[in-house]
Structure to design on (651 residues):
């Protein structure tokens, strides 16, 4: 591969690593996708019944270890299929091996068993089965659970995102799909419990092995046998056609309502020098705000803040402050904030918004655990308001929505509730990443219960993790691969990253966010290439633009414009948003799938620009690529994998 000829994999995903191959296994009306290790998209008569079943091994930082698969056998005929393989994982000199058997029949019975041992012993936070129930059409639905004692209880899948565990001590879960199928999931070999995985933007309810109330990490001793089995039984026929419909996705627009919120980016002090070198280019983004990070534990000081504010001003953006408070006692925290306020007052520009978080809140406290000492939240925010009297004061969490949901701030003490997200905490594959977009409306429906009438902002958020609340740090990625808990995720640099960021912004804009920040200016979450310690295939680190550049630049221009929701005749087939500007109605949409998609634009949208694998090189060198709308008179577009479209209907 030469500099002038990046591979298709690099164009789409930012890495030469190819996506996991998914093999369709079917037995009569039962079908599943086998990705080489796990089962995805379990369907009966075309309707989704279970999102995924996986046997996972996680290390002490909750990172999922990638198994090496050997001795794979796949057998199938019209009425049944069978899969068997041997898997092994390794972490810090410890190994664990397990044998897997999978079988499915036309009668709607699917079994998945695993038996494993370790010759070395293994320190782990979780080793065993994880079962994912879908969320759309299941949220709020009735369920019958069977406890390990045999007791049966009637309950429901939660509508608002449950901050802890909605179902405990599980042996079996039964429910009906929206189409009327009866689904039973039997889990043997240990006690299971459920967490509402929507907290982490996963589009699923997750039932997992080993209760969190037990100590973790825990050790599997040499010679100890781990043996578990999942049995899925599905009965009945769906009442109507499956939502897995094909054909052309016809798009329509809802009525204009709220305004497009301001779009910002993050800035970490470690990236300030690189951002300053490219600040003239970054100014072309037109972002509304730059979130300047400050953490005294890392040696950040007045010079750190001054440089970040300088960059924000040069970009034509408002500087926001995101400050970690080191002291855990009320008096120490108040004095620390007072000192920070005096430093900020001497800067060239005041911080229009100040977000604060006690350092202990940057790490997770699991359900049932004791919260670590931290300043009283109301007193903390009062100190911030006194130190920054002219600023809007925000509070919540710098980590995931999960932590915000579990430790809710006193909304009456702040002006703005804030949190961030990442897309690959539990799984690093492409399908799971894009499924997170399905979950965002569920977060939007839950936030008001936390904010209590206050506006909310989200970000800076990206595909990868800027911090790991559950371990020492995000996973370094020198091999430039797909994996959960990545710090530098390759898809940030591909067309797929552009599609995900567009879908992310659209969901929160339609969901009423007061402000949204995407990723960062430069670095692992950035919009253009600079020299880094991690690989950037094809990019030289000299300021070439990642595809996400065009998303940030285009959507930033729409600030304040009336928003029109985008709807599709094929649910979930596209993600996007429209806005009414002085030029007319501007439409932004993406194909969130690796498969080609036919879309029919609303009436009058005949001018469009497309960002996809074929325009990747041009997009890296032409900041205004999506300003160049073509006119061919057609409303039907054929979109390649993860393609992004900007279309305009003029006044």
């Amino acid at each position: 591969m030469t500099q002038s000829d990046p591979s298709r994999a690099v164009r789409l995903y930012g890495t030469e690593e190819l996506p996991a191959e998914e093999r369709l296994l079917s037995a009569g009306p039962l079908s599943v996708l086998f990705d080489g290790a796990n089962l995805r998209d379990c369907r009966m008569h075309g309707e989704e019944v279970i999102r995924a079943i996986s046997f996972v091994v996680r290390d002490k930082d909750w990172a999922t270890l990638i198994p090496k698969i050997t001795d794979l056998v796949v057998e199938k005929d019209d009425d049944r299929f069978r899969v068997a393989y041997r898997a092994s994982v390794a972490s810090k000199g410890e190994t664990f091996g397990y044998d897997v058997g999978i079988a499915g029949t036309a009668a709607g019975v699917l079994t998945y068993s695993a038996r494993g041992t370790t010759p070395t012993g293994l320190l782990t936070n979780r080793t065993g089965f994880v079962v994912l129930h879908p969320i759309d059409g299941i949220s709020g639905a009735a369920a019958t659970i069977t406890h390990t004692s045999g007791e049966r209880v009637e309950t429901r899948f939660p509508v608002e995102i449950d901050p802890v565990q909605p179902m405990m001590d599980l042996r079996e879960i039964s429910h009906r799909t929206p189409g009327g199928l009866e689904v039973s999931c039997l889990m043997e070999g240990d006690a299971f419990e459920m967490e509402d995985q929507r907290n982490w933007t996963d589009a699923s309810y997750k039932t997992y092995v080993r209760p969190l109330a037990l100590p973790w990490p825990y050790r599997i001793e040499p010679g100890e046998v781990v043996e578990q089995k999942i049995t899925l039984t599905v009965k009945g026929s769906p009442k109507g056609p499956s939502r897995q419909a094909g054909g052309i996705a016809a798009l329509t627009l809802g009525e204009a309502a709220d305004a497009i919120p301001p779009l910002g980016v993050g800035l970490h002090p470690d990236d300030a020098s690189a951002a300053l070198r490219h600040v003239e280019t970054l100014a072309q983004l037109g972002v509304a705000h730059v979130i300047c990070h400050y953490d005294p534990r890392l040696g950040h000081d007045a010079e750190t803040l001054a440089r970040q504010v300088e960059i924000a001003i040069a970009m034509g953006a408002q500087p926001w402050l995101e400050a970690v408070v080191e002291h855990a006692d009320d008096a120490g925290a108040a004095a620390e904030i007072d000192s920070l306020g005096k430093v900020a007052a001497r800067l060239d520009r005041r911080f229009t918004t100040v977000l604060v978080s006690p350092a202990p809140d940057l790490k997770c406290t699991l359900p049932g655990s004791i919260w670590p000492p931290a300043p009283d939240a109301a007193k903390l925010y009062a100190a911030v308001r006194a130190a920054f009297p002219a600023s809007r004061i925000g509070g919540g969490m710098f980590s995931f929505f999960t932590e915000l949901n579990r430790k809710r701030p006193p909304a009456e003490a702040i002006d703005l509730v804030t949190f961030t997200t990442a897309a690959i905490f539990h799984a690093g594959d492409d399908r799971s990443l894009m499924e997170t977009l399905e979950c965002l409306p569920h977060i939007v429906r839950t936030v008001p219960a936390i904010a209590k009438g206050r506006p909310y902002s989200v970000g800076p958020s990206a595909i990868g993790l800027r911090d790991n609340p559950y371990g020492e740090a995000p996973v370094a990625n020198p091999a430039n691969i797909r994996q959960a808990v990545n710090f530098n995720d390759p898809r940030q640099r591909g067309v797929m990253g552009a599609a995900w960021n567009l879908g992310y912004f659209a969901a929160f804009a339609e969901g009423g966010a007061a402000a949204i920040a995407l990723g960062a200016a430069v670095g692992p979450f950035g919009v253009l290439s600079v020299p880094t310690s991690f690989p950037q295939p094809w990019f030289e680190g000299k300021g070439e633009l990642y595809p996400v550049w065009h998303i940030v630049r285009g959507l930033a221009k729409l600030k304040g414009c009336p928003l029109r929701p985008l709807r599709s005749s094929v649910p979930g087939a596209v993600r996007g948003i429209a806005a009414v500007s002085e030029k007319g109605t501007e439409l932004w949409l993406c194909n969130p799938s690796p498969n080609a998609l036919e879309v029919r634009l609303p009436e009058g949208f005949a001018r469009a620009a497309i960002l996809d694998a074929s325009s990747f090189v041009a997009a890296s060198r032409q900041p205004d690529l999506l300003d160049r709308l073509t006119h061919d008179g057609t409303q039907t577009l054929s979109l390649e994998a993860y393609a992004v479209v900007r279309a305009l209907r003029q006044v």
Q: What stands out?
A: The two ends are 45 Å apart (CA to CA).
